[in-house]
Design brief:
The protein is an alpha+beta fold. The chain contains 18 helices and 25 strands. Strand 22 and strand 23 form a beta hairpin.
């Protein structure tokens, strides 16, 4: 740049609002130029905005003359710009040098008679094109052949991206307005529906999140529910689509090869005791179809023998089978309001392996010897054949206990005695009433409140006893296995007789430590038992099936199917699958519960129980639905834990997992 006293009267090419234009230098202001713009305005520009200073100096121009000169100069430079063929110029110099002065490069292109206008026109062309050359600190840099190719590809990709965005805007905009989508290439429709689906499921972590967000911004559709609503309109999702199944890629249907194999699987012959003459019965819910456990009871001089008979899935589904591999992929049967997603194909879980009344089935039998007071004195494990004589429901058994039936009363007392001994050993199992949700085929939502009735306690205690017996047996025999354990709660709040106090129960939940899986037996503080595994639901849980495989092989004198390292790998997978299943169950249950509240109770007043209360917020349980909610409090409004109140359900949005309530 020339000495500062020589700047006045020169023309400069500067960048204003993103475009180059000529200006007339009036003077300086510090390190900035004070210039006259073609518009007639006077401004100051920085050195960063200044591209080129003319070599000619024009002193003594009037304002009118300067403006006329600027207009003519801009017109002349624009015309010269259109004449410049940058690819030809680039081919001329690409192998000669990497950096040029703009006047030097203009002379190469226009000839030695070129001057300020030609140099400025060339600078304009370089700034506009940016493919073959680039401008940097007063010099023109020549791009290499590799760089030009890279930039060319990037431009093509960007052009394709912009074209795609425009098509996406037309497509999704039409969906948003409820119009017939425009006639677009099928691949474009599929691209945006797929990208929108991923964005709906995974948000900013989805691979095309930025592109979808840009399209949604263009069509002014940035609400949190918009992606889902658009997908419903496009027929990709149903109104009540279970997004959790899609997020976690939960397999719903079984592969054809798994179904074919399930048809061909047969029981592997092993020596068994014939227990088909026993009076064996199942106790389950009315709508149960997969029966994996049955009971029989005998009274002896020393007490009682309770037989817990578990369907022998291991003898039908070998570890190397496709069916077992699919069970390994699923981890467990998922019981959801809208239906069941079984771990094993229904042909097995509901037919071949299900302990249906009247049909002979292979089983693993646990003969549990109890004292009259419920002490488990000894046990025996064996492979057997059984035939269930009766199918009972929880409701039927509860009625028999309530009516004073001596057999069922004694059996209930036996189960309670076993539970009392566990409790004395430190068991702290927190139980709450359960809200079971069922969605009928027509979409009607039904709620059922399940209390922990005597029949349910009876079945639960004998299953716990069988699982404890399995753990002790495996540990004593040195058989590698999977175990469940739970560490001591951080604090014990529940006292004797407070099990029905919902406030205390919810407070205690915060201090419980999550149960864990391991390869060696440890004390289970939730159950009050020194060792514990689960083996009583091999139709429904992968862990139970794996442990059953170990048991059956050992009882048969065969090589064990899983060593310690194989069990470790299964354990790691199980931990992940169990966490996913818990989230899917919880979020799905909550969605349907909120939808039920929206349909039937939005705007209405319901009962509430204060669990916690602060100055501005309270945590309130809606006991009829076993749903804790957060509630804002007005200044000065005071509540206390344990207080029974009435609350109004103001707004519910199941898709956004939102419920707002206020004191009634």
């Amino acid at each position: 740049m020339a000495e500062r006293e020589d700047l006045v009267g020169r023309l400069a090419e500067v960048v204003q609002h993103g475009r180059p234009l000529p200006v007339y230098v009036l003077g300086t202001k510090g390190k900035r130029l004070r210039v006259l713009l073609p518009s007639g305005k006077e401004e100051t520009v920085s050195s960063g905005q200044t591209l080129l200073l003319s070599r000619k100096r024009l002193r003594g121009l009037s304002r009118h003359e300067a403006l006329s000169l600027l207009a003519e100069t801009d017109k002349r430079r624009s015309a010269l710009r259109t004449e410049i063929d940058l690819p030809t110029l680039w081919e001329l110099v690409v192998d000669e040098a990497e950096v040029f002065d703009p006047y030097e490069l203009a002379a190469l292109y226009f000839g030695n008679q070129s001057g300020d206008d030609e140099a400025a026109a060339l600078v304009r062309a370089v700034l506009e094109d940016r493919l073959y050359f680039r401008w940097r600190e007063g010099k023109i840099l020549v791009h290499s052949r590799e760089e030009v190719e890279r930039l060319r590809l990037a431009r093509e990709r960007e052009a394709e991206r912009l074209r795609r965005l425009s098509l996406g805007e037309a497509f999704l905009g039409g969906l948003l307005r409820g119009e017939e989508p425009p006639d677009l290439p099928p691949e474009i429709r599929e691209y945006f529906l797929s990208a929108l689906r991923d964005y709906c499921l995974f948000g900013e972590e989805s691979p095309r999140a930025r592109e979808i967000r840009e399209v949604l911004t263009r069509i002014k559709a940035t609400g949190p529910e918009t992606p889902f609503r658009l997908l419903v309109r496009a027929g990709v999702f149903r109104e009540d689509e279970n997004l959790e199944l899609l997020r976690y890629r939960i397999p719903v249907d079984f592969p054809e090869e798994v179904l074919r194999e399930a048809e061909s699987l047969r029981e592997r012959g092993r020596p068994r005791e014939d227990l088909t003459s026993l009076n064996t019965f199942t106790i389950d819910a009315e709508d149960t179809r997969d029966f994996d456990d049955a009971l029989h009871v005998e009274e002896t001089d020393e007490g009682w023998v309770v037989g817990v008979h578990i369907t022998d899935v291991a003898s039908v589904v070998p570890p190397g089978s496709k069916v077992f591999g699919e069970a390994l992929r699923r981890g467990q049967t998922l019981y959801l309001p809208e239906g069941i997603i079984p771990m094993l194909p229904p042909l097995l879980s509901e037919e071949k392996l299900s302990l249906r009344a009247g049909e002979k089935r292979p089983a693993v039998s646990f003969l549990l010897f109890f004292s009259p007071e419920g002490e488990l004195r000894e046990f025996r494990l064996l492979l057997s054949y059984i035939r269930v004589a009766r199918r009972l429901t929880y409701e039927e058994v509860d009625k028999r206990i309530e009516s004073g039936d001596p057999f069922w009363i004694r059996l209930y007392d036996l189960a309670r005695g076993f539970a009392a001994r566990r409790k004395k050993a430190g068991a702290l199992a927190v139980t709450l009433p359960e809200i079971v949700i069922r969605v009928e085929e027509g979409g009607e939502i039904r709620l059922q409140r399940l209390e922990f009735t005597p029949a349910r306690l009876l079945v639960a205690e004998f299953m716990i006893a069988a699982n404890f017996a399995a753990a002790r047996f495996l540990a004593d025999q040195g058989v590698p296995a999977l175990y469940r354990f739970q560490k001591e709660p951080l604090e014990r709040l529940l006292r004797e007789g407070e099990e029905e106090d919902l406030v205390k129960v919810f407070q205690q939940l915060r201090y419980l430590v999550r149960g864990e899986l391991g390869l060696s037996p440890e004390f289970h503080h939730g159950l009050g038992l020194p060792a514990y595994t689960t083996v009583t639901s091999p139709i429904r849980r992968l862990m139970d099936l794996v442990v059953q495989h170990q048991l059956v092989a050992f009882l048969s004198g065969e090589p064990l199917p899983f060593d310690q390292e194989a069990l470790r790998e299964i354990l790691i997978r199980l931990e992940d699958l169990q966490s996913i299943a818990a989230q899917v169950r919880s979020r799905t249950h909550r969605y349907w519960l909120l939808k039920y509240l929206k349909l039937h109770f939005q705007g209405k007043v319901v009962a509430g129980l204060v669990l916690e209360a602060g100055e501005r917020r309270a945590r309130v349980l809606l006991p009829d639905f076993m749903l804790p909610v957060e509630m804002q409090l007005s200044p000065g409004y005071r509540l206390r834990a344990g207080e029974e109140i009435r609350v109004k359900i103001l707004r519910v949005n199941p898709r956004l997992d939102l419920i707002r309530v206020a004191p009634a």
